[in-house]
Design brief:
The protein has helices at about 10-20, 35-45; strands spanning about 20-25, 50-55, 75. The protein is α/β, with parallel strands linked by helices. Strands 2-1-3 form a 3-stranded parallel sheet, covered by helices on one side. The protein is globular.
């Protein structure tokens, strides 16, 4: 079993800071089994309603379309790879 650091506390802080009422969470396939746990924690710790995006997630640029029609205030897109601080081209 692979364990991920979801950094859920950062997400909770952002939701509270933005006073977001409807939050869409977007997870890569490897993290989708954690969706219900993440949703439950967010809804318990904030007043936000959580929508789980089950479509593709190939990075932060792969944004779901039509979220504005659903009244989404904030999108949180998780990944499971670290970003490199320096790129050696």
């Amino acid at each position: 079993m692979v364990l991920y650091n979801t950094e859920l506390q950062k997400a909770l802080e952002k939701i509270k800071a933005e006073n977001a009422k409807t939050v869409c969470i977007q997870l890569p396939d490897g993290m989708k089994p954690l969706a219900n746990e993440i949703q439950a924690t967010i809804e318990k710790e904030t007043s936000a309603r959580v929508l789980i995006w089950l479509g593709s997630n190939f990075g932060a640029c792969d944004m779901p379309l039509g979220l504005d029609r659903l009244g989404v205030d904030l999108v949180i897109s998780w990944g499971h790879n670290k970003f490199r601080k320096e790129v050696g081209w």
